[in-house]
């Protein structure tokens, strides 16, 4: 009798196991969606843009953007799970390895401006949530052709990341995590080093310069320096720069920043507060 019951359980196991594996916790998927769509906004680069420069609805991850802002030519791939034109053939572990270590399954390196230097700091839970969500996002068939061309060798981002805990439970630490590894604010707002890497000793002191129809604008100093940074801004003014894309004098912030406002406006209120708390706590840096 026991043998028969055990036999029945054993027979059921292969059916149960894959199903259990294929269905991550709803909370994990929801976290993954929040990170990919909002807080990390992968679509800023991975979104397919229409002639008006806006991301086409439903194609937030379908790729095709050609990015030349930083002096090289990067072609952004389709990261929906479409098997032929996207990353449908990749496992969740492959996706984690791509985000954290900048490595594709074939061992090649992913080049900038994908901010791998920052994504190395994503916690185990968050990077797993992103990968779980990306595997289950709607597949979009959209072939992206051509290869990125860099005017420097793309080098390894460092030894493989093994484990990163969630940030400590206080506003400044959470804000540092959000403004760094998650929303990569500091990828734009930190001085550049050769190879499109960042000078992490001068975080927030102003960085990448963007050129477009709106003119030439640097990602400004967002440390609390009173003269060179945003030390005189109130918390509400910083919040408006993020969620409305406007400076205290009413000036509209250029698209690399202002264009993110509708997305940042959907960020959890607590996350916005933590980012602002962190900006306030940065050492004030002069140019
Ligand atoms: C600032 C722009 C930018 C952002 C933000 C960005 N990426 Fe990328 N990503 C790129 C570029 C450019 C490439 C291709 C680089 C190359 O050609 O070597 C890429 C490559 C990838 C690849 C490899 C796909 C393939 O087929 O080779 C994956 C996976 C990926 N990104 C996932 C993500 C995820 C997930 C996010 C958000 C957490 C994200 N990226 C955010 C620019 C970006
Ligand atoms: C893709 C690059 C990019 C990212 C990512 C980015 N910014 Fe910006 N940011 C800019 C640029 C460029 C400007 C300057 C816009 C202008 O002056 O018109 C700017 C302006 C600002 C300003 C106004 C500063 C001033 O003196 O006018 C603040 C505050 C700011 N960013 C904070 C942030 C925070 C916080 C994040 C992350 C949640 C972030 N930025 C993400 C590029 C970026």
The share of residues in extended strands comes to: 5-15%
Q: Which hetero ligands occur in this complex? A: heme C
Provide the structure class: mainly alpha
Number of strands: 6
- Coarse shape: globular
Straight-line N-to-C gap: 79 Å
Please list the strands of the largest sheet in the order they lie side by side.
Answer: 1-2
Count the domains: 2
The low-confidence parts are 5-20
Main sheet properties = 2 strands, antiparallel
The number of helical runs is 12
- The helix/strand order is HHHEEHHHHHEEEEHHHH
* Helical proportion, percent range: 25-40%
Average pLDDT rating: 93
Rg from Cα: 21 Å
Quick tags:
single chain; 287 residues; mainly alpha; Cytochrome Bc1 Complex, Chain D, domain 2; two-stranded antiparallel ribbon; 6 strands; 39% helix; binds heme C
Can you put this structure into words, describing what you see?
A hairpin with a 3-residue loop joins β3 and β4 (197-198). The chain is mainly α and 287 residues long. Helices cover 39% and strands 6% of the residues. Mean pLDDT is 93; it is low at 5-20. The strands form 3 sheets. It has a two-stranded antiparallel ribbon with strand order 1-2. The protein has a two-stranded antiparallel ribbon with strand order 3-4. The chain folds into 2 domains: 25-166; 168-287, Cytochrome Bc1 Complex, Chain D, domain 2. Bound molecules: heme C (2 copies). One heme C binds at residues 36, 40, 42, 44-46, 67, 74-77, 79, 87, 95, 98-99, 104, 110-111, 113-115, 130, 134, 148.
């Amino acid at each position: 009798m026991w043998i028969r019951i055990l036999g029945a359980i054993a027979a059921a196991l292969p059916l149960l196991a894959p199903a259990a594996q294929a269905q991550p916790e709803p909370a994990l998927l929801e976290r993954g969606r929040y990170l990919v769509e909002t807080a990390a906004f992968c679509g800023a680069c991975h979104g397919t843009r229409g002639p008006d420069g806006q991301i086409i609805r439903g194609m937030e991850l379908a790729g095709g953007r050609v990015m030349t802002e930083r002096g090289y030519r990067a072609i952004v791939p389709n990261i929906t799970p479409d098997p032929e034109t996207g990353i449908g053939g990749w496992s969740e572990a492959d996706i984690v390895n791509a985000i954290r270590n900048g490595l594709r399954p074939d061992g090649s390196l992913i080049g900038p401006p994908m901010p791998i230097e920052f994504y190395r700091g994503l916690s185990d839970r968050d990077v797993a949530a992103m990968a779980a969500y990306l595997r289950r996002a709607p597949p979009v068939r959209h072939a992206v052709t051509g290869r990125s061309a860099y005017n420097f060798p793309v080098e390894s981002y460092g030894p493989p990341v093994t484990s990163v805990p969630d940030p400590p439970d206080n506003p400044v630490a959470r804000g540092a995590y959000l403004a760094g590894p998650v929303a990569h604010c500091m990828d734009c707002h930190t001085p550049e080093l050769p190879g499109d890497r960042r000078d992490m000793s001068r975080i927030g002191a102003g960085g990448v310069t963007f050129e477009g129809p709106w003119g030439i604008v640097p990602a400004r100093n967002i440390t609390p320096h009173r003269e060179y940074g945003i030390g005189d801004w109130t918390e509400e003014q910083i919040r408006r720069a993020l969620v409305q894309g406007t400076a205290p004098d009413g000036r509209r912030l250029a698209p690399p920043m202002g264009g993110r406002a509708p997305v940042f406006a959907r960020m959890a209120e607590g996350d916005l507060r933590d980012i602002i708390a962190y900006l306030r706590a940065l050492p004030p840096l002069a140019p």
